[in-house]
Amino acid sequence: DIIPQPLLDQYLSMTDPARAQTVDTEIAKHCAYSLPGVALTLGRQNWHCLKDTYETLASDIQWKVRRTLAFSIHELAVILGDQLTAADLVPIFNGFLKDLDEVRIGVLKHLYDFLKLLHADKRREYLYQLDEFAVTDNSRNWRFRYELAEQLILILELYNHNDVYDYLRHIALTLCSDKVSEVRWISFKLIVAILQKFYANSANALGLNFINELVVRFRHCSKWVGRQAFAFICQVG
After folding, report:
1. Which of 219, 222, 221 is nearest to 230 (CA)?
2. How many angstroms separate the CA atoms of 103 and 214, rounded?
3. d(C-alpha 63, C-alpha 77), whole Å
4. Which tens digit of pLDDT belongs to each residue from 75-95?
5. Considering the domain boundaries, does residue 224 fall inside one?
6. Which of 109, 157, 207, 229 has the greatest number of CB atoms lying within 10 Å of its CB?
7. CATH of the domain at 110
8. In sequence order, which residues have a C-beta less than 8 Å from that of residue 48 and are 6 or more positions away?
């Protein structure tokens, strides 16, 4: 009753491979781009009308189609709510995590926005995978690591101080030693944000352990770039 059935049928047929050959080679990409708007119009109670189409697009052979969905999956999660997101979007999100860098960057840019919508137990599963974002198909793709550091600053609020110490601390330390200065700079802010997290939660022992680790790793580093990093961390703090 929300939109005419012929119009919906026409939209759903955009994933038909024959349409790509006869109408527009990028018709599936246009379909993927419009999907969050169609989902919002139909409402979550009618998600079943779009579910199969979404799954078809998510496995499309063209990476540009998958990339389009990866950039908007956090918006779709808001529209669908936590239950449908956990059931229908999380498996696709997990697939995007293992995709090409061109697709993964879409997930990474809105990682915080997606994770904050998940229940705490489901969100915790991603703690063990966050360091995988530091590995890219091309090591020269430094913007990927920059984006990871930027997202981690936001993500800190989603996890308790013990999880931050056990899982996110070592990622931050690795990024601080990156070959690209822009990545190191944003990572210094991440280091300070982690320290602030510890002391805001009265986890003084963890904070002190982390400071001692920074002293050993950077302050007493045999290379000048390490000692410079320590000075910059102090400056940011």
Report:
1. 219
2. 34
3. 21
4. 999 999 999 999 999 999 999
5. no
6. 229
7. 1.25.10.10
8. none
